[in-house]
Amino acid sequence: MSAEKLWNGLREILSEGQINTNPDDLYDAAADRYKKYAKARKVLDVPTPLAIVYPKSVEEISKLMSFCNENLINVIPRGGKTATEGGLENWKETTIVIDAEHLNQIIKIDEYNMQATVQAGVPLQVLEDELRKVGLTTGHSPQSKPVAKYGGLVATRSIGQFSTLYGGIEDMVVGLECVFPDGHVARIKNVSRRAGGPDIRHIAIGNEGTLCYITEVTVKVFRYYPENNKFFGYLVKNIDTGVSVLREVMVAGYRPSVARVYSEEDARQHFYHFYQDHCVLIFMAEGNKGIVEATAKGIEEAVAKYQEGIIEQVDSTLIEDWFNHLNWSQQDIDDEIEGMIENDSHAGFTTEISADWETIPKIYYNVMSRIRNEFPRAHDLTMLGGHSSHSYINGTNMYFVYNYSINCAPEDEMRIYHHPLQTIIVEETLKLGGSMCHHHGIGKYRNEWTKEEHGSAYYMLEKLKEAFDPNGIMNFGTIFPQEEGIKYQK
Ligand SMILES: Cc1cc2nc3c(=O)[nH]c(=O)nc-3n(C[C@H](O)[C@H](O)[C@H](O)COP(=O)(O)OP(=O)(O)OC[C@H]3O[C@@H](n4cnc5c(N)ncnc54)[C@H](O)[C@@H]3O)c2cc1C
Q1: pLDDT at 490
Q2: Distance, CA 81 to ligand 1 centroid (Å)?
Q3: pLDDT per residue over 226-267, tens digit each?
Q4: Residues with Cβ within 6 A of ligand 1?
């Protein structure tokens, strides 16, 4: 379509102030944190979107989506911009970014029915702060909590640090409203449960902007009892001991809000002041007094059962302090990028996978060994480790973390370092039947494995895309593998 037709179409729907064509902002919108180093070095190799638009209502979003659908304009929905897997990266020449900035209203906090309704652009921290005033909490605490917004949190199927008690976002969403490419507005009502056919919330939850634009969300809320919190920390001999204790706590039926084990290398980054070259196991028990006391007892019993693998217990205030400084503000995010540029190093790249209890340690050791033996730039690694941070009755996750010095042209960083590392992690995980993406989503940089991840069930995913986005205008290249994207991928 001609540029003139695009501008005229946008101006018919929005006012001038709602359309941003500032070149710096468009460059910023071309990629997310996946290519943060290349972006900061100004060597991004992807097209910039043509405009960022800021609708103020569902009606405007519906009109924008219809306009883009009719004219084959690629749409990238955007929230807090904390995406880590390329979900916000642009792979099309004709793209507009629909930013949720003006959808910023908390619509209702319903203390009796224990749910809150927000527009998609409400930051998680804003709702959390409002709830705390009345003794409630969202229970949702990803490290990006100060910045991430509800539309993005739901679209990426996010999970927070207290997930073992409260669940992931999928356990919190009661109902929602979303807009499909043909402009149809769908509202999923708020009920405590229903058996009304397949659970259609899951078409929107985790869709990463590839099927619909989420405009409103209703989530469960919980009573907040910070005065009852109990923290536990232990130095343990190895990852296996830590995973065994986590499993013991979970299968005994306890739900501490936090249950984690860190490898020695990863522990050094977080607990350098007390880890003494050992793995670190931590728990937090949260909730009403009776539940906290029972959970604390359950944790102590599980630790006692694996006593031979426990080196010592650490002062609980060290764990509490660490928790109080874990979240990232926008300033932390900006400072991290400055640090990367200054030092030509990448600190804290991650690939998070999941599997059942018996498989997780196998994946962990296979990955460690393959990276150390096969990765051609192993000498540039400054850290390689991992932690399990989200546990379930039948398994847990492993969050591989790797830091490296960047000794190549900035535009080659992903090809030389990240891609081979991520490939080893994903291959080892899929080989043993695990999932290659526990919580950051597929974005654009794990889509080469989407079909393998889903196997014969990929049929269902593909049919959803064909049904809801037949013209393929929603976030091209995200989740669904695309030939045309391969040139940007490595
Ligand atoms: C420091 C840091 C810590 C993090 N910690 C965690 C963590 O603990 N747990 C976790 O799960 N994730 C974490 N993440 C990843 C990220 O914060 C989450 O994926 C978050 O849910 C993204 O929300 P956002 O509002 O920033 O979305 P964005 O980054 O703006 O978008 C993310 C994706 O969702 C789509 N999207 C955004 N809004 C909508 C909408 N309204 N409708 C449809 N699609 C939409 C986008 O197109 C994109 O694909 C972290 C990221 C950072 C930078």
Answers
A1: 64
A2: 7
A3: 999 999 999 999 999 999 999 999 999 999 999 999 999 999
A4: 32-33, 76-84, 87-88, 100, 120, 142-144, 148-149, 151-153, 155-156, 158-159, 208-209, 213-214, 328, 333, 439-440, 475, 478
pLDDT digits (tens, 9 = 90+) for 355-365: 999 999 999 99
Structure token pair of residue 116: 């809150």
CA distance linking residue 44 with residue 446, whole number of Å: 19
Backbone angles phi, psi at 345, to 5 degrees: -145, 155
Give the residue among 83, 130, 76 at the shortest CA–CA distance from 100.
Answer: 76
Q: Kindly provide the residue ranges of all beta strands, DSSP E only, lying in 79-220, ordered along the sequence.
A: 95-99, 106-110, 115-119, 136-137, 173-179, 185-188, 213-220
Q: Which domains does the chain have, with CATH numbers?
A: 3-101 (3.30.43.10), 106-223 (3.30.465.10), 226-324 (3.30.70.3450), 330-464 (3.30.300.330)
Paired tokens of 253: 């039926």
CA distance 197 to 187: 16
Which position has the token pair 């007892």? 297
- Rounded (10°) angle between helices 359-374 and 419-431: 140
Nearest to 73 by CA among 57, 92, 54: 92
